[in-house]
Amino acid sequence: MIDHAHDLESVRDATERLLTAVTKLDNASVTQSSRLPGWSRGHVLAHLARNADALVNVLQGRPMYADAVARDADIERDAPRPLDVQLRDLRDSAARFQEAGAAPADWSRTVELRNGVTDTAARVPFRRWIEVELHHVDLGIGYELEDLPEEFAVREIDFLAERFGGHTDVAAARLTDGTRVWRTGREADSPEVTVTGSGADLLGWLAGRRDGSPLTVHGGPLPILPPL
């Protein structure tokens, strides 16, 4: 069972780690490239702030974004802002998300995200946790996949393995970090390949943050994953 209150606290902790790290930047470094193609660090920070507000919309029964064009335009508008403005926006939008999450609600209800994707309201805090942790890594400022909290890393591998589960274009795969095992890919009586590696490398591959080259694959080539 998803514990949304626990996840809200985890989001708060992850946000504080992010803010502490970003505070050490300067205006010039905010304009430099992030690890996401075509995005500066300012784009990443702007996206994080706007995503918090978008998930408030989700929790309060409104469309997550007006449309894809408006979402992208908001990020482009906010990306060039100086560091102090970025930090203020991150803090304020994070506070709005926490306030929305603290409101009495039916957490078992179904909510709608982008592109018609639906989920239970209780999973929204975890989805926000994903955004904060992975985009902290994307900033390229010293926070790596190996630094992610273990609970988060395991749950994110669970989440992504489930997301690619049943995908007919992904080979049926058994994933393992030597301790835990996940299944993903198309339906099959037995896995077509076994992929072994550290939790960080498995997560990096599944999340599109690493190419999977450190992983060991038996039974065939490393499966090609569709974009997230």
UniProtKB/TrEMBL annotation:
It comes from the Bacteria. Residues 11-139 form the Mycothiol-dependent maleylpyruvate isomerase metal-binding domain. Residues 147-226 form the MDMPI C-terminal domain. Keywords: Isomerase. One of its GO terms (molecular function) is isomerase activity. SUPFAM superfamilies: DinB/YfiT-like putative metalloenzymes (SSF109854), SCP-like (SSF55718). This is Maleylpyruvate isomerase family mycothiol-dependent enzyme. It comes from Streptomyces galilaeus.
